[in-house]
Write a structure and sequence with these properties.
Chain lengths: 410, 373
């Protein structure tokens, strides 16, 4: 057992490091990241950085060579990610395109379309988003109701998508819609890509419980009113929408990691600091007990990740252990945020006039979203129970029913 | 990055798993429990014959000269099968104490006998209904003679040698005692898990030999406890996994309201939470195994983390296994109570969860930055 790179990995890491050092600034601290004053500025900086990476061959490591990637192994992607994270560079804009939309286009788009769309996506010139969830289709995403109706060589799309990250600045999106409500749920879906500037598309940022809307890679509602999509932009056969969507979500699963934000480290620093009376919270037994619990969770996740990396590093398929990551980290984040606020007693609820919400307050406000996004705690427990432990699926009330006959209210 | 056991170690673990299955799995613990035995002497003899008592003993003393990682994989299988043998007392504790702190004379005398099974060793720390500390020890040594009473001494029935933590003029000493000496009285103590045997051991002017340096006993015992905590944690993870597997199997075969109970989310989410606890504990155990095998300065923190995490996992899995089994889980006939009872004994045997949480946080207080891999 050791935590060292193999010689090849060390060589790759050194290569990443060398290029990053020549092209970016190291972060001063772990939490200090890129801060742009406005969304426009952030996009500009992010696009410039992506372009730079593209020119040097770092933009889409895992892509096949024919599309400009280097077919990097999972461990090389992890090493690049670890090194890039140490630098003060913008992120959060291109992941959906490069991680989900690119691979699905490679698999299902025509040669002409691949030539047209993949390079600008990789270069950061065009941003992509993913249009799956709907107001009535969250955990049960195959229950989506947006309609596609055939009209000559086109399809006419009507309906609404929701929780679309980055829709407000995206150029293109991948989309699943229902072409046939008269057959069973999963069979009536078809997959497209769409120009987000098409007439009839309206994007409305969602105001979240944090009070924020449309900042960073914020969420949106996307309305489709008689939007025309040429049949040539269909990905996969008519009725294969669910299959294509699952392939895409599998790619997403690789990308979802820890809930970012206040962790045991910050809780520990706070606990060790002395208050006005010279007392440190860490002297309090109930605080000590909670620190021990969070440390066991944080450390357990860290070494769970190391076990996964170790398997990848040996070229083996990792076990299912990473499936626990989001449930544990999002709940821990919520508890630590809560602890940080409580530590200020009555002042804990107050928001600083100059600095805005503290990182503990931010964690507490953001954690409920993290417990839902990318699979709710409950869905993820079902996933562990069914796919990892092999327990039977729940009986489904919609099984075998035509979509239009599935009950939607009591 | 290689946070994994080697192929040889995985092979050893697989052999151990097959061995315990072949030897009857949980039925051995049940037999010891039902018949009021001190342990399974037949199973112990076979373990000795496999060479596992000599895993960490250097070849010069007739052992296998392997590392702690080999012990970790065996520990997980001992835990999974709830093996009723004095392995932890004799191997994790007594043998380690001799290897790490024994004089050449003591090593040459005892290590080959520990390997061959001629002797079994144990240890005594606790004295009363509270946590033993350096300042509250009553068992004491004067002119090499020990007086006082140790309680909850595991396996003292099968063991003939014992490491005793005692108060001395220099502070605390570790002393080696022959349990067959006439001045020693060993009497069984009833406990919650009768698949394991515990004893009260009374010393009256009992002759003893110093282990290591006088006055360093408390420091030694902390190190031995840290080492043992990692190995106990592997046993706890093995037990947790077995309890989870048992709950899963039952939830697939038991029907209620016309369907498998494992198809209800109430059961699924319970089992998912058990899986989460086992996975966290196992990963913390790997960190502990790394710290143990590399003699890292992080061992105290790593051991406490593995120990707390594995204690929580085994307690959760063993109690929710009973719950998943409904009324059947509360019967003597079903094996659920074997896990429940063992999880409790393992959770207090090296010191309670609260004690190890306190150790964990004390170590966190000392560090300015958290351990980086």
């Amino acid at each position: 057992m050791d935590f060292n790179d193999t010689p090849e990995q060390a060589k790759f890491r050194a290569k990443c490091r060398e290029w990053l050092e020549a092209n970016a600034e190291l972060k001063e601290s772990k939490s200090n990241g890129h801060n742009a004053s406005s969304l426009e500025d952030h996009l500009k900086v992010a696009k410039t950085w992506q372009q730079k990476k593209y020119e040097a061959g770092w933009a889409m490591l895992h892509w096949p060579k024919e599309y400009g990637g280097i077919e990097a192994s999972p461990i090389e992607r992890i090493i690049w990610g670890q090194e890039e994270a140490k630098f003060n560079v913008p992120g959060g804009i291109f992941e959906i395109g490069l991680g989900m939309c690119g691979p699905v286009m490679m698999q299902y788009a025509s040669e002409e379309q691949k030539d047209r769309y993949l390079a600008p996506m990789a270069e950061g010139k065009e941003i992509w988003c993913q249009l799956f969830s709907e107001p009535a289709a969250g955990s049960d995403v195959a229950g989506l109701r947006s309609k596609a109706e055939r009209d000559g060589d086109d399809w006419i799309i009507n309906g609404q998508k929701v929780w679309t990250s980055g829709a407000h600045y995206s150029d293109f999106g991948i989309l699943v819609v229902r072409h046939d409500p008269d057959i069973v749920k999963h069979k009536g879906l078809t997959f497209f890509f769409v120009d987000m500037k098409s007439p009839g598309i309206t994007v409305k940022p969602i105001k979240q419980i944090t009070g924020q809307a449309g900042s960073g890679s914020g969420f949106n509602e996307v309305y489709f009113d008689d939007v025309r999509i040429p049949d040539s932009q269909r990905l996969g056969e008519i009725g294969d929408g669910w299959k294509v969507a699952i392939t895409t979500l599998m790619n997403e699963r690789l990308a979802v990691g820890d809930a970012k934000g206040s962790d045991i480290e910050e809780a520990l620093i706070l606990s060790k600091s002395k208050d006005d009376a010279g007392e440190a919270l860490i002297k309090n037994d109930s605080v000590r007990e909670r620190l021990a619990d969070w440390f066991c969770e944080a450390n357990g996740l860290k070494y769970t990740k190391f076990r996964t990396i170790s398997a990848l590093s040996k070229g083996e398929a990792p076990g299912p252990e990473a499936s626990i990551t989001k449930i544990v980290s999002a709940n821990k984040l919520q508890e630590i945020g809560n602890f940080g606020i409580d530590s200020g007693d009555m002042a804990g609820m107050l928001i600083d006039e100059n600095d805005g919400v503290s990182s503990f307050q931010g964690a507490w406000l953001g954690a409920p979203g993290l417990r839902i996004a990318g699979g709710t705690d409950e869905i993820l427990r079902n996933v562990i129970a069914e796919r990892v432990l092999g327990l039977p699926q729940d009986p489904r009330a919609d099984k075998g029913l035509a979509f239009k006959d599935i009950p939607t209210k009591a | 990055m290689n946070l994994d056991f080697s192929d040889d170690q995985k092979f050893l673990q697989d052999e151990a798993k097959k061995f315990f299955n072949k030897e009857g799995g949980l039925s051995n613990a049940r037999t010891v429990m039902d018949d009021g035995l001190e342990g399974d002497a037949g199973l112990w003899k076979k373990i000795v014959d496999l060479g596992w008592t000599g895993i960490r003993v250097p070849e010069a003393y007739e052992g296998l000269g392997l590392g702690h990682l080999e012990l970790c994989v065996i520990a997980e299988e001992l835990g999974r099968s709830l093996a009723p043998v004095p392995f932890s007392s004799s191997v994790y504790f007594f043998t380690e104490a001799i290897i790490k702190f024994g004089s050449e004379e003591i090593k040459s005398d005892l290590l080959p006998k520990l390997v061959s099974g001629e002797i079994v060793g144990t240890y005594g720390i606790a004295e009363d209904m509270h946590q033993a500390t350096e300042s509250n020890l009553n068992v004491s040594v004067e002119a090499e003679k020990i007086n006082g009473v140790k309680i909850a001494v595991p396996d003292a029935g099968m063991a003939s040698q014992m490491i005793v933590v005692v108060k001395s003029s220099a502070g605390t000493d570790l002393r080696l005692v022959d349990l067959n000496d006439d001045s020693v009285t060993v009497s069984p103590q009833k406990n919650l898990d009768t698949s394991r045997a515990f004893f009260k051991v009374e010393f009256k002017n009992t002759p003893s030999k110093l282990i290591g340096e006088s006055g360093k006993g408390w420091q030694y015992i902390q190190h031995l406890l840290d080492q043992a905590a990692v190995l106990f944690a592997f046993e706890q993870v093995g037990g947790s996994q077995a309890a989870l597997d048992m709950a899963k199997a039952y939830s697939m075969e038991r029907f209620a309201f016309g369907r498998q109970i494992g198809s209800y989310q109430a059961i699924k989410h319970k089992l998912a939470d058990m899986y989460i606890a086992v996975t966290l504990a196992k990963s913390n155990c790997y960190y502990g195994a790394w710290a143990l095998s590399s003699e890292s300065a992080e061992l105290p923190l790593a051991a406490a983390t593995a120990r707390v995490s594995a204690t929580k996992a085994f307690q959760l899995c063993s109690k929710e296994n009973i719950q998943t089994h409904g009324g059947n889980g509360f019967t003597w006939e079903y094996d659920c109570h074997l896990f429940y009872k063992r999880s409790k004994v393992l959770s207090v045997l090296l010191g309670s969860e609260a004690t190890w949480k306190e150790k964990l946080v004390t170590n966190l207080e000392k560090t300015n930055t958290l351990a980086k891999g």
